Amino acid sequence: MKKIIAIALAMVMVLSLVIGSGVALAKPNGNGGPKPGIDFNGPHYNLNLIGKDKVMPGDYDNPDRHTMFVPLDTEGMTFTNPDDPNSPTFYGIKIEMTQGPEFAMIDGNATDDHYGAFQLGPGKYRVYIAVRAKSPKYSDEEAFTDITGWVQAYDNTGTSWYYIEVGYVQVKKGKNSWTDATDLFFVTTNEDPFGFVTGIEPEYTEWGIWVFDYMAGLDNWTDGGYDFSDLAYFWEFDNRGNKLIQVRFYPMN
Length: 253
Prior knowledge:
The protein is mainly beta. The protein has one domain (25-251). 11% of the residues lie in helices and 38% in strands. Strands 1, 2, 3, 9, 12 and 16 form a six-stranded mixed sheet that branches. A six-stranded mixed sheet has the order 7-8-6-15-10-11, covered by helices on one side. The protein has a two-stranded antiparallel ribbon with strand order 4-5.
């Protein structure tokens, strides 16, 4: 009896650690899609991007939230870098990503100013994205969401801005709808334009270098005649009618 009680207490402690860290337990993969990592049912964090056809009141920036409101249809929406007079035009809305001590919703309403902000917890993650609801505006074939990951950096020496595309996925509703989007968060030697990433770094994985490690490295880099500041990572998020896009972050070992 004592052994059974001890095992039960240990299970409760493990579950408390998982929930307390902001990581939720996954539901079984019922759509036959690819299984992320080793265990699709293992600990992960859910981020739900909910499409709305109107401007939502409020900011919804409670750190404990797992949802962000985004426009249901971003057709015709664009954004630029206001600090760069020569900024390229990006399509859809901007979702800025940072990394901190815990998962947190920084700005959960991207319907008012076409800007949202989300903080990842510590560590590195495999990332999977799926459309989880039928579009109220388009057919399953017509509705889609394009997501492009960008690193932004300012060169103080050359007084110029750089925009580095580090990954792209398109997600649509379907039977096998889970899309591996891990490379949105990693920078490869082919994507790095400065020669900073060599591919032989100990932390270089099959996807490249974790994007926030990459930016931290550039920020402290003194070779190559560059002096970078104002580094940021964001999503160019172009949503055409999808009502619910779910993003799952699975911790890497």
